[in-house]
Structure of Putative phosphonate C-P lyase system protein PhnK:
Amino acid sequence: MTTNEEAFRTAVFPSTDAPQAIPRSALPETPVLVVSHLTVGAEDPARPPLLTDLTLSIGAGEIMGLVGESGAGKSMAGAALSGLLPKGIVRRAGAVALGGRRLDGLTEREMRAVRGRGIGFVFQDPLTSLDPLMTIGAQLEETIRTLKGVAGAQARAHALRLLTEAGLPDPERLLTSYPHELSGGMRQRVVIALALAGDPQLIVADEPTTALDATLQAQITALLKRLARERGVAVLLITHDMGVVAATCDRAAVLYSGRLVEIGPAADVLTHPQHPYTKGLIGSIPRAASSKTNAKHPTLWLEQIEGAMPDPGRRPTGCAFHPRCRAASAECCMAVPELLRIDDASSVNPCMPHYAACLRAAANGRAVPGSMVSFHAGHEKPWGKLAEAREAALAEAPEILRVEGVSKRFGKPSILARAQAFFSGAKAAEAPKALDDVSITIRRGETVAVVGESGSGKSTLAKTVAGLITADAGAVRFAEPEGRKPRIAMIFQDPQSSLNPRMTAGEAVEEALRIYAPQLAGSARRERAAALLARVGLPASAYAKRPHEFSGGQRQRISIARALACEPDLLLCDEPTSALDVSVQAQVLNLMKTLQLERGMSFLFISHNLGVVRHMCDRVVVMKKGRIVEAGPRDEVFGNPKHLYTRTLLASEAVLEPDDPADSAEVEAETAGA
C-alpha cells in the first residue's frame, strides 16, 4: 500500500476502535467509496438520529446491496453520501470519500460537479427521471453537454454509444422517441444510460427494479452486473428484495432502524445469516419453482417478523430489534451490540469477512448455529385439519366462476393508420386486443393465479370479471351459491389510494357494511366493523385512526377487512403485495391463506412475483399480449413448463441462491429487446 493510500485511509478511518468500525482488512484495497461512522439526523441535535454510525466501502467493479424494511434508512444513506439530504436533515458526524476525495466538506456547487461526473443515479420510477416533453436524444445530449462539454455531432455519437451500451435496440430510432413511447424496461435502460453519461465512479441505484415485472427486473440486474464488470464502476444497490441481492450483488449490508446490523459476502449473508433480523427477512420470502430450498414445500407458512420498525424517537434501549426478536435476552435490552467479525468455516469467501451486530452471533466469535437464532419458519401445514380437508375437497368443489372466450379491445386505430388505409384501399389496422379469447374457471375455495409481463392483460381480466369493464365478446358467468347472487370483492396494489384519507379505518369498513349488511343498526354495525379489523390482526385502537397513521401492511389489512364485509365468495387480488416489504408481505399472505381456509373463499390472484404465485395458488394461468399461452396445476406449470414464454418468466425470477454470471448474460441477451 502506498503512502498516499495509507494517509487517505487514516484520514477517513481515524480509529478502528470506534463503535461500528470495520477493520481495514475488510476493505477493498482500492475502494471507490468509503463511508466512515456516518451519522445523519435533524438539525436539532436533541432529536434522535435517522442514520447512526454507518461504515462501509465499495470497490471498483463491486456491487453492494443495501437492504432492509421501509424506514430502515436505506434511501437516507444513499442521499447522505451523494449530498442530497432533505431540507432540515444534516450530516452530524462521519466522513464520505469518493475515489480518495473527501465529499463531506464540499460546498453545494462542488457537490453538483461530483454528481453526474462522480456519481450517477438510477431511481425506482424512470418516468420521474425523464422529461416527458423532450426526446430521449435531447435529454441525453443535454446531459452529455453539461457533463462532458461536447455538443452537436460529438454529443449525438456519444448518446448512441450510451444507448448501445445500455442494451437498447435501434438506438438511432430511440433518439427521436419520447419516454411514453417506450416500455418500462426500456425507460429504465435510458435512465442507466443517463447515469453513465459522465463516466461516474459510483452508481447509486435506489430500488431500480421494484416497479418492473420479473422479466424486466432480470434485464436490469443483468445490465448492472455487466456494467460493473466492464466499466469497473462501483454500484450501491438499494433494495428490499433479497432475491435481487442474490442475483446481483457481491456483498450485502443489512440496515435496521438506521444501524448496520450485518455485512458480508452476499452468498454468506443469504445462506448463513447471523443476525435474527436478516434471518427473518429471508424466511419471509416465498420461493419460486427454481428455488432449490423450497421446491418440495411451496405452501409453507411464511416467516413473520412481528411488530414494526420503531420510529426514530421511539427506539428501545439496547439492540433496536430486541422487541421483535424471539431470541432476545435481558442483555439485548441493555447495550447496543457492535459489529464483530464472524468466524464461519463455511464462508464462501474467507477473504471477504462477514460481520454481524448481535450478541448471540458474536459469542466466541463463531457462527451461531441456525437453531439459536431461528424464527422456526417452515411448518408445512400450520392450519392442521383445515388444510387437509381443503386439499381433499378441492377436486370435487363446484365452479364459482366461468370465463368463456372473453375478448376486449381498447381504443381505435390512429388517424394516420386510418388515412393510410383509406388511400390504399386496405382495411384499417385494428387496435391490439387487451384480451383475446380468454377462458378460465375457478372452483369454490380455489386460488387461480394469473401471471405475465406488464401489458399482458392480467388487470383487464380482473376488471372484466368484476364488471368494471364490459367485454366485446364472450361471457363471464357466476354460480349462484345457495340461491343468491355471488359476492365479489377486490384488493388493489396500493392500499393508500384505495382508502379514503378522511375516513378512519372503522368508518371505511362501516361504509362497506352499510351496502352489504343494511339490516345492521349503528351499534351492531360498529361492533361488526371492529370484529373485522380484529380478524385481520389490527388492534382495537386502529378503529379511530386514519390511513396516514398506518404502515403499508396495516393499510392493506384494512383493505382486506373492508373486502370481508360483504362475505365474498370470490376475492379479486390485483398485485396485493407488490408495494409491501417482504416481512409485511408474509403477514398479508399468511392472513389471506388463513381466511381462505376458514371461509372457503376463492381467489383470482394477479401478480408478477412468481414466488408469491407459487406460494398462494392451486392453478396458474400464463398470459402474453392478451392471450393465455399456458395454464395448469401449479406444480406442473412451475416444474415442467411447456411454453417458451413460461420458461422465460421462470428463468427471470430472482431467487435466493447466488447467481451464475453465465445465467445473467443469457437472460440479458434473450430479453434485451423487451
